[in-house]
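Bench notes, bay 3.
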Amino acid sequence: MKFGVSFASQPGLIDTAVEAEALGYDSVHFYDTPLVCADPYVVAALVAQRTERIPIFISVAIPYLRLPHVLATAAGTLNYLAPGRINLGIGTGYTGAQTTGSKPDTWAFVTEYVEAVRKLMAGEEAEYTIKGQRRIIKHLHPERGFVNVEDHVPIWIAATGPKGFGITAEIGEGLITISGGRRPKVEEWGPRIAEFHAASRAAGKGELPVKLLTAMAVRDPDEPLDSPRLMGFQGPWITSHLHGDLGKGSKDPNTPEIMHQAVAEYGKLRPGMRQDAPWLENHRGHSTFVRPDEAHVLSGELLGAVSQIGTAEELIEEVRALEAIGFEELVWQVIPGYEDEVARFAREVMAPYRAQVTVSG
C-alpha cells in the first residue's frame, strides 16, 4: 500500500508537504476549490521547487473553472519544474461548483475536456469550443522552455458512483475515489473495485490503480473518540460532507444511521443562512475548521463511523484489508494546525506496516 497526504491548498502547508517527502510518503495532493483555499498550481509549483522525488497531484482539477489550454499550460509549467512528477486528477467539480451555488459538470463535458487536455499536454492539436465556436488549439512554443510536453502527465479521474467509474475505465489512467460519509468497509468496496477493474480490463487497460481519499488518525489506546485532538483533527472531514448537500442528505444505504442523523441536524442550520447565497455560509470552514454553529453536530461516535480512527495496530490491520481488495494508495487529509500528525502517522503506521510487508515478503 502507498500512502499520500492531501491539503486544502495553502502556502502555509508547503513545509508540511516537503516534510512528507522526507518521511517517505508516496504523494502529495492539492485541492482545487478557489473560493475555499489558495491556488493549487501556485502551491504545487513551490512544493515542486523544494522537493525531488514525491509525485505531486492536483486533486482534483475542475473543468468549468479553466479552459483546457489554461489547465494544460498550468500542468505543463509544473511538469517543467518537476519533470515526470506531476499528476492531474479531473472530476465533475462537486464542491467547487457548490461554493458558487452551481451544479457540477456533466460526465459528457468532462470526457470532452479530458481529451482536449491530454492532447494539449502532449504538444498536440486539440479541437474545443472557445467563445461558442469550435477552434483548433495548440501550445505554440513548447520547445522554448515554456512548458514540458515530453514527460507524460497522467490523468486520473475522480469519481464515486457507477457511472463515474465507467467513465474512468474509458478515459482515465487511474481512479481517485472517496470514502464519503462513512468509514470504508471491505464488504462494500471489494465488489465496487472488482467491478471497476472488470470495466478497465474490458477497455483494454488492465486493472487501473485506485486511490482512496479518506481521513485517518492514530488514536492513543486510552484516548476517547471525542478528545479535543481528534475532534479538531477529524471534525472538518465530517463537516465537509455535511456541507456537500446543504444538509439535505443522501439516501445511500451504506451510509451509517448516525451520519443520516447528523445530516438532518445540520439541515436545521440552513434556514438561518443567507437566503440569497446560502453557500457563502454553508461552506465556511470546509476541510479546514469546524464552525461554532456546526460543532454540536459532531460526536465521538460520528467520528468513528466516518473517519478511519484507531490505534496504530488497528490502522495497520485496516490498511492491510483495504490493500487486499485492490486499493493502491490511501490519501488522508491534513488539517491546518495538525501538521504534526503527518510525522506521527509515518512513525506509528507507515514504518511498522512497511517493515511487516518487507518481513512477510
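Next record in the batch:
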Amino acid sequence: MNWQSPVAETFTIYSLCEYAITLEFNKGITEQTLDDIVAFHTLLNQHPFDGFETAVPAYATLSVFFDPIQVMQSIHLQGTNCFQRVSAYLQTLRQAVISDKVRKDQEPPVVTIPVCYGGEFGPDLEEVAHRSGLSPNEVIQQHSSAMYRVYLIGFTPGFPYLGGLPASLATPRKQTPRASVPRGSIGIAGQQTGIYSQNTPGGWQIIGRTAQSLFDVKNRPPALLKVGDHVIFQPITPDQFNTND
C-alpha cells in the first residue's frame, strides 16, 4: 500500500517496502536539513523501537529498516500495521530532534584528509583549472581551503559525497568514464567533491589522491567518515604521500 503520513513541519513519512520506511526532511539539500537528519539518526539509534535494525541517512532523507515480525509483536508499538506502528513511534521523537540538547550533543567531528594534488595523483587538475579559469595552484588552494560536510555515503562502501565545494571549482563529470580509478582519488563532479574508497570505474574529475583508507572491514566502524562529518583537505607532497602509503 502507498502509505503516507505528514509529520508537522519536520518530515514526511513514506512507506518504502514491507520492512522499511523513509523520512523526507526537505525537498532541498541544505546544511540545516543535514543537521536535522543527523540529529534524528543519532536519537533513533539511542532510543530504538522494537524491531529496529538500521537507518540510512542521505541528502534529504532517512530510511529506517526494521523486522516486521518484531514490530507487530511489540506491546510498546500501537497500530494495525507496521507503517502505523513505526510512524507513531517516530512522531514521538519529533520534538526531541529540534531541542538544544540534541543539537549540542551532535557537534560533528572534523576529519583532516591529506591529499597529494596533480601529476599522476590528479590527472584532471589541469582540466579543472582550464574550465574554472584558474591556475592549478589556485584550484589546489581553493579546494584545500574549504570546509566540507559529508551528505551521503554511497556508490561503494565508505565513498563520501561532500558538499561545500567552492562554486568556482564546479566541473561536470567526464564524458567518458575511466575504466579504473585508484582508491583514495579525490574527484569533482558538478558542485560536489568526493573520495573513491575502492578501485572502481568512475567519471569524476580526479584532482588528487590520499593514502588514507576510507573503508576497512577490520575497523569499527569500517568507514572512516559518516554523514554529517566535517572534512578538510590538507595538501602534501609526493614524498609525504609515499611515506604514508
